[in-house]
Write a structure and sequence with these properties.
It is a single chain. The chain is α/β, with parallel strands linked by helices and about 240 residues long. Helix content is about 30%, strand content about 25%. It has a 9-stranded mixed β-sheet, with helices on both faces. α7 packs parallel to α8. The protein is globular and about 50 Å long. The protein starts with a helix and ends in a 6-residue tail after the last strand. About 35% of the residues are buried.
Length: about 240
């Protein structure tokens, strides 16, 4: 490793999620890949958009790659927050790309490599510094070669690191203790939880993994606000 690369590891990329940087040593490491996982409606997509908005505020171009949902619906949903998101999309500081149009067509199925190369092409051509890929859930059923996921994902992550693009990947939380390839290959894993207590929904976040960064792995309370998700340095109960 060169000295410049070692020094770069001291830099931090602000997450854009109030309170999160305080429990992950000041922010994400630049050029790394992170996984956000949780149940439906837990805020994974919202956190991803907050991450892109934070970059746009600092002059960093971002891309949201949707693998299933129509990006227009995502954009409409996110406009309820006070992000100023519409302005950043109009200025093309944040772009939305719909790969679900291809993946959901029964007559044409991509391989893992073809899928990842399509994403890398977008990132490379647009000079992207922050990327969100939403969502990896059930991709094994939509690609032509599900058995090649681990190898292709490892190659994809190395390519993102070489492009120096800090990336968030989202996926649905799986039942039990089953971990997927992305849990092992990414640089960090954030898990969002739902709990019912006294007939009220309580939301919490846990930093399950964060390579190269001092972090607090205890459950932290999170809340939805007009500004998006906020993380509180306190236990949820």
């Amino acid at each position: 490793m060169y000295v410049g690369e070692i020094l770069k590891s001291l830099d931090r990329v602000p997450s854009g999620v109030p309170g999160l940087d305080d429990i992950i040593g000041g922010g994400f490491l630049p050029g790394r890949v992170y996984l956000i996982t949780g149940p439906p409606g837990s805020g994974k997509t919202t956190m991803g958009v907050q991450f892109l908005v934070e970059g746009a505020r600092n002059g960093e171009k971002g891309v949201f790659v949707s693998l299933v949902e129509d990006p227009r619906i995502i954009l409409q949903d996110m406009l309820r927050y006070n992000f100023g998101l519409l302005g950043y999309t109009k200025s093309k500081m944040i772009t939305f790309h719909d790969l679900g149009r291809i993946l959901l067509r029964a007559e044409y199925r991509l391989t893992w490599n073809e899928l990842f190369n399509s994403i890398l092409q977008i990132i490379s051509e647009e000079g992207i510094k922050r990327a969100v890929i939403d969502s990896f859930t059930s991709m094994e059923h939509l690609v032509k070669d599900p058995e090649n996921k681990r190898w292709a994902l490892g190659r994809f992550i190395r390519a993102l690191q070489e492009l120096e693009t800090t990336t968030l990947i989202t996926s649905e939380m799986l039942q039990g203790e089953r971990y997927t390839d992305e849990h092992y290959l990414v640089d960090g894993v954030l898990v969002i939880h739902h709990f019912m207590r006294n007939y009220q929904m309580i939301r919490a976040m846990q930093v399950l993994k964060m390579r190269g960064v001092p972090h607090d792995s205890n459950l932290k309370r999170i809340r939805f606000t007009d500004e998006g998700i906020k993380v509180y340095n306190e236990a949820p109960f």
